[in-house]
Every structure is written in C-alpha cells, then in structure tokens.
C-alpha cells in the first residue's frame, strides 16, 4: 500500500481528498507540520480558500521552507496548485516559487460567472504520465476565481473566457487546478497516475 503525506492546510476538501486516495488503495497520512514530511515518499497539498491565509499557515507550520527542498513527487490541488507559483494577485501573496508565473483573477465575461464553478473540458497540451488514460475530451470539476497562466509547464489547459492552466508539471512538482476528488473517473485516474509517477 502506497503511503502519501497529505498536508492539512485547513482546506474544506481535506477529508474527501483522503477518501479518494483510500479508494485507490493508498494510505494517506495527515501531516500538520513540516516534521511530518521527513520520510514521505510523495506529498499532496490540497487547498480551498484564499492564497494569503493559506501561505501564512504554511509559514507558521514550517511547510513554506521545507516544500521547495523536497526531493519526492509533490501534487498541489486547486489552491494548492496556485501556491506552487511565485505569487498570486489574491491578496498580493508571495507563494512557494516552485513554478514561475503569477496567479491572476479570472476576468469572466458575458454569460461567464466568476468563480468558475462546475464541469469543464480539459485540453491536453503536452504528453505526460500524469495524463495517461485521460482522453482529449475529458471533463473535470472546477471551483476557483483565480487561475495560473498557460506556460511551458502546462500539460493540460482549460477555458473559462480566457485560457488557463488546468494541470502543470515541472520536475517532481505537479498541480491540478480542478478537484480530482470530485471529478469522477478523470480525477481518479489523475490521482492514480500520481501515485505511480516517478519523475526524473
């Protein structure tokens, strides 16, 4: 059974993420301070809420210093993915800096509500083991008002008025803007792929 450290950053989706991992045969280990990451074979950073308070919590519990030095696979989900970037417009927060770029507020548009809530289609941008078995017309469930730019680290994009990064990868660091734990077969496959992922 695969152990995975799940960082408790105060997100409301914490329990459902752990349950989704258990359904895949993983053993989620709840981690509330940086010491708990010492022997973790892989790490998941879920998040719901605002960038500023989430980063304050990561600093308070020692995660902000430890996460950039990790040598194991790391997956950020929703806000957790946004925190992987250098900064966010949300509260002018400085983030973890593991991925280049600034998270910006979604502009919306005629007939488009912000936050972006509900199912939307993924557009594969680049091949990756994290997307194995996820079709080009796969749909995933989103809840977010801010989004990361489509850069060279983006392997799947989505559009809500503007185009934004839905899945990102750089080295051992990955992120999903959507909620895998609420995205049916698409989300389960992404999590299963992460559990088997061995980035070089």
Automatic annotation (TrEMBL):
IGPS catalyzes the conversion of PRFAR and glutamine to IGP, AICAR and glutamate. The HisH subunit catalyzes the hydrolysis of glutamine to glutamate and ammonia as part of the synthesis of IGP and AICAR. The resulting ammonia molecule is channeled to the active site of HisF. Its EC number is 4.3.2.10, 3.5.1.2. The keyword Lyase applies. GO terms for molecular function: glutaminase activity; imidazoleglycerol-phosphate synthase activity; lyase activity. Pfam families: GATase. This is Imidazole glycerol phosphate synthase subunit HisH. Keywords: Amino-acid biosynthesis, Cytoplasm, Glutamine amidotransferase, Histidine biosynthesis, Hydrolase, Lyase. GO terms for biological process: L-histidine biosynthetic process. Pathway: Amino-acid biosynthesis; L-histidine biosynthesis; L-histidine from 5-phospho-alpha-D-ribose 1-diphosphate: step 5/9. Coiled coil: none annotated. Heterodimer of HisH and HisF. Residues 6-195 form the Glutamine amidotransferase domain. It is found in: Cytoplasm. It catalyses: 5-[(5-phospho-1-deoxy-D-ribulos-1-ylimino)methylamino]-1-(5-phospho-beta-D-ribosyl)imidazole-4-carboxamide + L-glutamine = D-erythro-1-(imidazol-4-yl)glycerol 3-phosphate + 5-amino-1-(5-phospho-beta-D-ribosyl)imidazole-4-carboxamide + L-glutamate + H(+); L-glutamine + H2O = L-glutamate + NH4(+). SUPFAM superfamilies: Class I glutamine amidotransferase-like (SSF52317). CDD domains: GATase1_IGP_Synthase (cd01748).
């Amino acid at each position: 059974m695969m152990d995975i450290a799940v960082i408790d950053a105060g997100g409301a989706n914490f329990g459902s993420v752990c349950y989704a991992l258990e359904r895949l045969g993983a053993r989620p280990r709840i981690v509330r301070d940086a010491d708990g990451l010492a022997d973790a074979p892989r790490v998941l950073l879920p998040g719901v809420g605002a960038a500023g308070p989430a980063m304050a919590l990561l600093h308070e519990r020692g995660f902000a210093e430890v996460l950039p030095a990790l040598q194991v696979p790391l997956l950020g989900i929703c806000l957790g993915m946004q925190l992987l970037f250098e900064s966010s417009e949300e509260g002018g927060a400085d983030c973890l800096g593991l991925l280049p770029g600034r998270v910006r507020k979604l502009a919306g548009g005629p007939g488009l509500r912000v936050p972006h809530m509900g199912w939307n289609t993924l557009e594969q941008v680049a091949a990756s083991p994290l997307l194995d078995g996820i079709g080009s017309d796969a749909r995933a469930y989103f809840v977010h008002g801010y989004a990361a730019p489509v850069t060279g680290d983006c392997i799947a994009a989505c559009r809500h008025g503007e185009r934004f990064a839905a899945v990102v990868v750089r080295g051992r660091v990955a992120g999903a803007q959507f909620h895998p734990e609420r995205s049916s077969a698409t989300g389960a496959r992404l999590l299963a792929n992460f559990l088997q992922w061995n980035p070089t």
